[in-house]
Amino acid sequence: MRIMLVDDDPFSIEKLRARILQLSEQLGTVFEIVSECYSGQSALEQMPLTNPDTVFTDIQMSAVNGIELAKAIQVRSPSVHVVVISAYPMFEYAREAMKANVVEYLLKPVDTAALREVLLKLLDMNRNHSYNRSKEILHGILSGALEGVLENGAVQAIFPFKGYRMLLIQNVEALYDVRLLMPKRDVNFEPMRRELSEQMEKREQCWFLPSDDRKSILLIFGLFDLNPGRFPPLLQATQRCCARDGVLPTVVYSDPFERLEEIRALHKRLFMALSERIVIGKPRAVALEAEFAEPAAPFSATDEKRFVLLLQKRDVPGLKRSISDLFDSWERQDCTSMIVEIHLKRIVHLFEQQYRTSSVSQFKTLETRIEELVDTCRTFGELKEAFFTMLASAFRFAGEGAGDGDARQLFDKIEMYISSNIGQPLSLQTLTDHFHVSRTVICNLFRDYSHKSYVEYLTSLRMKIAQDLMRDYPKMLNKEIAEIVGYTDQNYFSHVFKTVTEMSPTRYRESLNRPGE
Questions:
Q1: Model confidence over 357-402: pLDDT tens digits?
Q2: Coil, strand or helix at 77
Q3: Is-above-0.85 flag for pTM?
Q4: What is the DSSP letter of 425?
């Protein structure tokens, strides 16, 4: 942390400097005194040259006093923290200091214990500010908005690292468990960042940046030590802290690199590499530069002709055996999710051609369901079961309505459970734990009987209940309604409400009072 000391008494500056340096040694942290100024005016002139993080200033000085200096800093450099020191515990001074956004108000003679607490508080504040600023810069680089400005000295000061490592991590938290429409930057990665920080040296940093598709997470390490032997423990810790329900993610990682400008191009390469390497139920960590050969999926033109003949004969047992053999072969060969998805869509297309029971829109819905199942299934066996269930529902593949009654009863029970617990957290995992069925069974049920994904169903139900409450109880606050339907954050509730209903809660309430709307 870079500190400027301001006091018109050199002896006071000397004592304060000695105590700060002593605490720096005791705390094992670098507190660097970058400037010592004997007037407020001098401090304002020195700030652009020394770029301090924090200013300690006496309150009573000629020309520009400590309060005036704090106010000027607030205007010119609002990110710089100011600590005011005074020999007089006057309420008026303290009130003016608060107006000037001063972090702390210390009394002379400065108590060492009090100074220690202030320094620790400032250190935490500066770390958070530095981290947030560096994360904003990384977002700007990835979006292409900061090209040509990375040679700026201020940017280089924020990124003092010798080099970097980038990892793209499969987001094994199911698509349905991600809060609908949640802004990417609001996802809380802080627990994972703290866990990884324990594996890094002091002043090294890591940043979690969720990808637009929410199926992956970008992790960037800023490192001072690029020794290859350090990376395997970091990689293992990354997989461990990004696991969900005991399921580890697949990770693709880059070689070390030195220039921040490289991260945008590297991110695109990592994205392609990850999508090509995910295998259901078999997490792995793969170097970006490692050679990769996609295993040939056994569904040749000859296999397809045989499959069509079985379809034409309506040979259900033969079709089941053929599909089951495909899944077994894909699992043995570690066939990637991307290739599996392509072939499952091809199989559905063949069913659609032979059964002629699906419209174009229905076929597109089935393709979407396949994508959802591939994303959420944890094993090939689970995917096979879910795929058979989907075919049976769409094409009466397993017989005329076999098992429909039981499935409908289960869906009705799930609907009742959701309605009774609408104000509680209702993730997909909550339902699987309560009803003792797989995630994919529940996904299929919602597609079959509500024609929506689970998240779409739950969100639309919550918004419908919110609308009913606004109509029936016009004096009820939005905050109360949000909590009733399961949202602890009123702003987030308003964001979802507007997205689903195409009007804000306020505008919707106004429309209730206008006949004809």
A1: 555 566 677 888 898 888 888 889 989 988 988 888 788 765 544 4
A2: coil
A3: no
A4: -
